Amino acid sequence: MLTEIQVDETKVVARFERVVGDVLREIRAAVDIERLILEALIKRKLSGEVLNVVTGRLRRSVFSYVEVEDDTVSGVVAQSGDVKYGARWEFGFTGDEVVKAHVRTITQAFGRAIAPREVEVQQFTRHVDQPARPFMRPSLAERAAAIVARLKGALAKGLGG
After folding, report:
1. Which pTM does this prediction carry?
2. Where are the chain's structural domains?
3. Mean pLDDT in each 10-residue stretch from start to end of the chain (161 residues)?
4. Within a 10 A sphere around the Cβ of 47, how many other Cβ atoms?
């Protein structure tokens, strides 16, 4: 005995499109939460855990956003390029650098206090051996398992499970 089954193709396609939309919506929400948590963790590391705050400029240069393109969701946490020393702390630096001529105020000479006065410092080259004190990569490594778990949960929720 033969049984005939009819499938309404438009309903099947609509169902798949809805599921894909639900999954993407849940994934985007999960990525949004995790990028905010990661950004906060990085800023906490810059508040004394890895580096001590002097001006707060480096900490303020850390930002995050979510990018959605077609069926790809990306969470980005970055440090703006206008604070160039951020990369030096993250990766370290060994090499020579040129220090431009500048004016400096001195308040002591030969170990004794003097009245503050400005002196001109000529351009010079110095050797720098700055070890890495990363704040971004360890933060991501610290959150990796939680990020994966949240994304798996979002996928399950988006699929209706």
Report:
1. 0.77
2. 9-89+133-158, 93-130
3. 61 63 89 95 91 90 92 90 90 96 95 95 96 94 94 89 60
4. 14
